[in-house]
Amino acid sequence: MPPLRRTGADREAEGPDYAGEYRLQACLGAGGMGVVHLATSASGLRLAVKVVHEQYAEDPEFRARFRQEVAAARRVSGAFTAPVVDADPDAVRPWMATLYVPGPTLADQVKRSGPLSPAELRRLTAGLAEALRDIHRAGVVHRDLKPSNVLLTDSGPKVIDFGISRPVDSDLHTETGKLIGSPPFMAPEQFQRPREVGPSADVFALGSVLVHAATGHGPFDSDSPYIVAYQVVHDEPDLTGVPEELAPLVARCLAKEPGERPTPAEIMAALLPPSYEATAFIPAQRRPALRALPVPAQAGPGAAWDADTPVRAPAPGPAPRRRRRLRRGPLAVGAAFVLAAGGTVAALSYAGGPAPAPRPPAEAAKAFSGWQTALQKSGEPAAPACALDGGALYCSGRGIAAARLDPATGRVLWSRPGPADAFPPPAPAALAGGRLAAVSATGELRTYGADGVPGWQRTAKGGRAEGAHAAGDVLVISDGTAALRGVDAASGRELWHHALRGHQYPVPGAYDAATGLLTVTEVLVDGRHTRVSTVRPRTGEVVRQQRLTGQLSPADSVRGGALVLAALNRDGMAEALVRYGLADGSVHRSVLPDLVDGPSLAAHGDVVLLLSPSGRLGAVDISGPRGRLLWDLETATAHLSAPVLDAAGARLYLSAPDGRLLAVDAHRGTILGQTTPRLHDGRPSSPTSAVPAPSLAPDRVYGTAPDGSVFAVDAGDPAGW
């Protein structure tokens, strides 16, 4: 077929004149991926021709998906869809022509004329159930059924737009960690287990579509897609306004578990005998625009969310390298911005005993009731970062250098202002003698007493501070150069300042109070080895140093005198775990059962918990040379904080970008409970900002949220959060 042609060399904005042999007459609509034009075939058939945007025509992955869309649309082409007339997915600008179906979308009809009558709703239910039965018989899962993808015609509803559908037998699967769909009409499993989405997800979407048709809004309604996602997974649907005779059937469609939803055939059977009141819907003719409509720009990170715009995971960056993944990949994950909760888990546990028993009734009566404090009350809020030191809770935030809160009540005992940096500062570093140090993003280091009285301060070399690491009564400071410096916490006196033997750009890490040693790591220039050193903080003396194989990324803390590090390949995927003994320099390496994308680590004995950026969490036993997977949990929440284990290694706590605090049974890999989101203007923390980790006390957990608040919950009752 002839290639797409344009009206002129410099008139790109007007788009092409032709798609194959079809002259494009007018624009029917535009979306993020393409423009739909009205056209006429040689025999006089009116066609709707979808032409993809030029920027996507160069993307091999998009072309593959477009081929899949064409194949899926052809497979289901029939009475309940717009039949495919022609297509060329290999054209310079890929296109597909379907029969033009006059009639409004369900979204337009409800917006213009209000909810459907009970009779019209019953007929819509039957028609969409028949359509889904036909689509599923063809071996296709639509995955994006929503009001804007339903056309109302005098012969019944037509389902359109198979752009993200997936044939059951297709080898083009959803990429790991990538979420595709429209949140108000997505099933819980689309947020939790996107690779396992089946026909029952379309039935859930049907339930949401019917609620919208009956009431003008969905069963889960919010201006924020993050809150909608949470509601879909955890809350009961709002069926207020759904006709009484249809409400039970709609409720079954909206069951959380796929197996509890009816099939399309069962929905049709439930509607027998047919209602003769449900006369045919005679729509007004949809009139094509007389002039081409402007194509909207692709939504950026700060754009307002449109309920009819599919949510697609952003690309990880410019020209990403392809990462090798094993075929069996319970832990192999990629980055994605997905904010929902819940998950599934393999029914495995590791030796270490059961999770703590529920609190007895008498003790429960005395349970900690919790509190929430708005630490930041002006400016652009962001999640504060906090640290516990004995009985004191210290926090910092945007515009707040340091503050002390009463752990029992949340009352702010004192607060000291700081620079309103673009990124919130890290948590204050608790020092020996009841002092703490706060570092701003500009490199300014300030210290405070437990009473909030300012102490000594200094500015890092070059005006930049990579970190201040508390090591007993010494603060070890890195300013991004080859040297480190040790500063006495009480006086601010510099104890030493030099480059460490064997290091060029050392990175201070975890401090082990039991041995009095600070760990320092550095990936060598060859990218295949890492130098690990233990240092005495008071003198800067290197006690032990070893050159270990692999690009190693350390955990944030030392447990049992050992530091655990993840061995990463050239693509940033963890392929092994290394346990390094600080006292004796022992090295134990355990190969992971699968690759894991750049994980954060938490360890207890021989068990290491790995958290990927996309929210996949797993536990691996590293006692042998090959790690053994104990359980695998999809939290369905990306960009979580670093994982924090309690002292017994029984529970794991994480903070989410939307302000939720999650508790996970570290023995079984199940989510024990989570708090509600605490958003600022419906927005979570920026995915470019690190989410502060929670702080643990024996009987309570302290979390922070993007609305600028700090809160505390009872550690003994996650289910009651």
Primary descriptors:
721 residues, alpha+beta, Phosphorylase Kinase, domain 1, Transferase(Phosphotransferase), domain 1, Thrombin, subunit H, six-stranded antiparallel beta sheet, four-stranded antiparallel beta sheet, 10 helices, 44 strands, elongated
Kindly describe this structure.
- 14% of the residues lie in helices and 32% in strands.
- It is α+β, with helices and mostly antiparallel strands and 721 residues long.
- Among the domains are: 12-99, 2-Layer Sandwich (Phosphorylase Kinase, domain 1), CATH 3.30.200; 106-286 and 293-298, Transferase(Phosphotransferase), domain 1; 352-373 and 635-721, Thrombin, subunit H (Beta Barrel); 382-499, Lipocalin (Beta Barrel).
- Helix 6 runs antiparallel to helix 8.
- The longest helix has 20 residues, at 118-137.
Summary?
This protein is α+β, with helices and mostly antiparallel strands and 721 residues long.
Radius of gyration: 29 Å
Gross morphology: elongated
Main sheet? 6 strands, antiparallel
Oligomer: single chain
Q: Per DSSP, what share of the residues sits in E-state strands of 2 or more residues?
A: 25-35%
CATH-defined architecture of the domain at 106-286 and 293-298: Orthogonal Bundle
> Count the helices. How many?
10
Q: Could you name the CATH topology of the domain at 106-286 and 293-298?
A: Transferase(Phosphotransferase), domain 1
Distance between the termini: 61 Å
Assigned CATH class of the domain at 106-286 and 293-298:
Mainly Alpha
Taking strands numbered 1, 2, ... along the chain, how are they ordered across the largest sheet?
Answer: 1-2-3-4-6-5
Number of strands: 44
User: Could you tell me the mean pLDDT?
Assistant: 78
CATH superfamily of the domain at 106-286 and 293-298: Transferase(Phosphotransferase) domain 1
Q: Which residues sit in consecutive blocks of at least 5 with pLDDT less than 50?
A: 1-14, 167-179, 275-365
